[in-house]
Design a protein that fits this description.
alpha+beta, D-amino Acid Aminotransferase, Chain A, domain 1, seven-stranded antiparallel sheet, DNA ligase i, domain 1, 21 strands, binds adenosine monophosphate, OB fold (Dihydrolipoamide Acetyltransferase, E2P), 3 domains, 20 helices
């Protein structure tokens, strides 16, 4: 398939706001691809060459791409830079450079999707001295065979920001329409995806084996499943009542303030995945060791929360301190010494080759407790208590807060594991006046001393208010996914709470996410989630949500959260009502 044909599809998708039209375009494109092309096309429309859980990195930065554009077109880097600053999109700058190139290539061949896919994926395997030069050469070669429009999308793909408004929900709907009975089978595609996190595989299975094949797709070692999420309870007693018919069916567990992790083990091989499904094994050698030595199962998948632990005082360290460990790529051993991890295990999703997803929580916990040999301070079972009466539940809750935990989790012991869902089988109870996890959607440079920093940040929540009801009036309970078609509504502007160091780091990251500008204000691709505290929520006509946070303050970057995990407009409304 020619790359030009796929680029035609990109343009169509980018040019329409209609979700139905996007879905139809995707379905047609999938249906028209042959068996070999289908996984490639499904990958390329998502704009990521590898799934999040494969620890592969193309190693492509904006400056490297700029050099490749200059090499392919003969246009000076400064001129490309100017163009980039004007529009905030290096893809546009590439298209412009390609149109104005001073260096005509004599023989150009038509690019194919296979060529783009293979060349870009190969970039991840380049290592050692000279690898940056090889990356520049490879991208430059693709760019010199590109038309200006192809150059735009190729550049965006290499940088990992395709921006055509296609998220997971649309790919799911496109697959259901292309190979199954459309809307009726969306649920099955969704489930297959939540378990495999691999749309190319889901698409191929839907096409070749239909519904039967999809239902067979299950959990596999070293391919993480979406974690089950929790709903918020309006207080402990309410939560217990709404989660199960009998209070005795409810298990309380301490809610630890750390990082959700999924552990996969086969013999001596252990891998650690985050809630965003990133493979962070290299950053956590201490967790790998603890699992190897204390989990007595040839193969298993365990769900848990990791916190930082001070071995001297035997108390947890703050989340902020521990979160340094998530993305750490150098001096890891030193950091492990200073901030060792402690894993609290609370679920087993597979054991000894058998999937436990459809078994009750009680069975899964039995399995977990059978294989886990706790090592205090390194790997433990989450503290828990079965609810017998209200009074003792309250005591457990107060005890958890006193121990410095965030609150408690309430779990229905009869429930199966629902990947990616927030369905009321698991709830959290914590004290009310809450912080909000919000996305940065726009940014502006500060004035005065901090004028080099993007210090004025517009904050947004997920706008779930329209999405909750489908066109036919039925409730849509499929929350918790990350998709580009997700809408965000702004709730305020942040200017304080960060140190210079934090702001410098944020600015560096934001500058790579700029996606356009209006006057002094830059659009930012919504990717960074901040935890924000504030004094109150007020009604306001200034922001499209209809609310404004009074005195918002930066608390921390939530490295562990994806845009789809940020708080919703309904949540903001709820908190407003509770004031
Ligand atoms: P929240 O992030 O506020 O939606 O709360 C849910 C998160 O609490 C989960 O995703 C876990 O990361 C975390 N958590 C802490 N302790 C537990 C526990 N005992 N069981 C389940 N989740 C827990």
């Amino acid at each position: 398939m020619e790359y030009a044909a796929l680029v035609g599809v990109y343009k169509h998708l980018e040019g329409t706001q209609s979700t139905l039209e996007k879905r139809d375009v995707l379905a047609r494109t999938f249906a028209d691809s042959d068996a070999e092309q289908l996984p490639i096309v499904v990958t390329l429309v998502q704009g990521h060459l590898f799934p999040a859980w494969q620890a592969e990195d193309l190693g492509v930065s904006s400056s490297l791409t700029k050099r490749a554009i200059a090499k392919a077109t003969g246009i000076e880097e400064e001129a490309i830079d100017d163009r980039w600053r004007e529009t905030g999109d290096l893809g546009d700058a590439a298209a412009w450079a390609s149109e104005n190139e001073t260096q005509q290539t004599l023989i150009t061949t038509d690019l194919t999707v296979e060529d783009v896919y293979t060349t870009l994926r190969e970039l991840a395997s380049y290592e050692g001295g000279g690898s940056q030069g090889r990356r520049i050469d490879a991208i430059a070669r693709l760019l010199s065979d590109s038309t200006p429009t192809e150059a735009r999308y190729l550049t965006r793909t290499a940088l990992g920001h395709l921006r055509i408004g296609v998220g997971e929900g649309l790919v799911r709907d496109g697959i259901a329409l292309a190979f199954l009975d459309g809307d009726e089978d969306v649920e099955a595609v969704e489930r297959a995806f939540q378990v495999t996190n691999d749309y190319p595989l889901v698409a191929r299975t839907a096409r070749e084996e239909g519904m039967a094949g999809l239902s067979e797709l299950g959990i596999e070692l070293f391919r993480p499943v979406r974690v089950m999420l929790a709903e918020k309870a309006e207080g402990l007693e309410d939560g217990i009542e709404s989660i199960a018919e009998e209070p005795g069916d409810v298990l309380l567990e301490s809610k630890y303030d750390g990082v959700r992790i999924q552990l996969h083990k086969e013999g001596e091989e252990v891998r650690v995945f985050t809630r965003k499904l990133e493979d962070v094994t290299e950053a956590f050698p201490d967790i790998v060791r603890a699992v190897r030595e204390n989990v007595d199962a040839e193969t298993c998948v365990i769900d848990g929360e990791a916190i930082g632990y001070d071995r001297e005082t035997k108390t947890p360290v703050t989340f902020q301190r521990f979160s340094q460990r998530i993305k750490r790529r150098y001096d890891i051993e030193d950091l492990v010494e200073r901030i060792p991890a402690l894993v609290y295990c609370f679920d087993a999703l597979a054991l000894k080759g058998e999937s436990l997803l459809d078994r009750s929580l009680e069975t899964r916990i039995d399995a977990l407790e059978r294989v886990l040999d706790a090592e205090p301070g390194a790997i433990e079972r989450a503290e828990n208590e079965r609810v017998t009466e209200e009074e003792s539940a309250r005591e457990f809750y107060e005890g958890a807060l006193e121990a410095g935990h965030e609150g408690v989790m309430l779990k229905n012991l009869g429930a199966r594991y629902q990947p990616g869902r927030r369905v009321g089988y698991m709830m959290k109870a914590k004290p009310t006046m809450e912080t909000l996890d919000l996305l940065i959607t726009r940014a502006q440079y500060s004035e005065g001393r901090r004028s080099d920093f993007l210090g004025r940040l517009f904050l947004a929540c997920r706008d779930d208010c329209e999405a909750e009801t489908d066109a036919d009036g039925s409730e849509d309970d499929r929350t918790g996914r990350e998709n580009d078609e997700q809408r965000f509504s702004e709730v305020g502007r942040l200017a304080t709470g960060y140190t210079d160091e934090q702001l410098r780091e944020l600015t560096d990251r934001l500058e790579a996410l700029l996606a356009g500008r209006e006057g002094q204000v830059f659009d930012v691709e919504p990717a960074i989630v901040l935890e924000i505290e504030y004094e109150a929520i007020q009604p306001s006509s200034e922001y499209d949500s209809g609310y404004a946070l009074r005195f918002p303050r930066f608390l921390r970057v939530r490295e562990d959260l994806a845009p789809a995990d940020s708080d919703t407009l309904s949540r903001v409304e709820e908190l407003y009502d509770q004031q």
